[in-house]
């Protein structure tokens, strides 16, 4: 079941004037009956409000409602007992799922109800990392104000400042530094955010070849692991991604692409990027 299907389904429930904590599950059940596989799967769990669906996004109803910016359902689900810190298959919480939203209403609701602003997913990334990757300054401000660690490190020991530098977002870089980001923090390759700024030629919205290579390699390995492509097609995937990334309008789409659904050999890939980018200067 695609996220677009969930969005359509949950949007119908969200505009129901009679929606409340007492009937939110029933109303979602009624709409979900159109999708028998998901309905039967949820039914087997006893219609657990915190059930993590196995297909598609692999998250809970609260994750889905939050990511679709459906405030009424979010409130009803929480009042019904939905866990604001429940994790999906990738370790993401509902707060991770909304870092692309320009509206901060859902964020404020989740945080007020106890959402952990420093919760990490399987990649060691917090919601702040996601907001930085989405160039979402409004969300960054909210998260930091509520206690998000600006110097948190992910699996590859990259901080939010590293990501902002890699994306060439100087406004974000400046904001994070003013919020206390450590400019001397080093990733697992020993590089600081300044190295990231000097590595790619990020000008006029173009993403450096090194970053595109990293992204392409990660996606190729993910597809291979999922048996979507065979080994001989991996170089083609990497090349195709490099070309596509250069043309993307960066934002939420880039964030999703940068988080493949399977682990890759991060050390090897990052080392290659480091070597390939050593001669690139602004």
Characterization of this structure:
The protein folds into 3 domains: 1-116, Ankyrin repeat-containing domain (Serine Threonine Protein Phosphatase 5, Tetratricopeptide repeat, Alpha Horseshoe); 121-198, Alpha Horseshoe (Serine Threonine Protein Phosphatase 5, Tetratricopeptide repeat), CATH 1.25.40.20; 201-282, no CATH class. It is mainly α and 282 residues long. The chain contains 15 helices and no strands. The chain has helices spanning 3-14, 24-32, 36-44, 61-67, 71-80, 105-112, 127-133, 137-145, 160-166, 170-178, 193-198, 209-225, 234-247, 252-257, 266-277.
Percent of sequence in beta strands: under 5%
CATH superfamily of the largest domain: Ankyrin repeat-containing domain
Spell the H/E element sequence. HHHHHHHHHHHHHHH
Provide the CATH architecture of the largest domain. Answer: Alpha Horseshoe
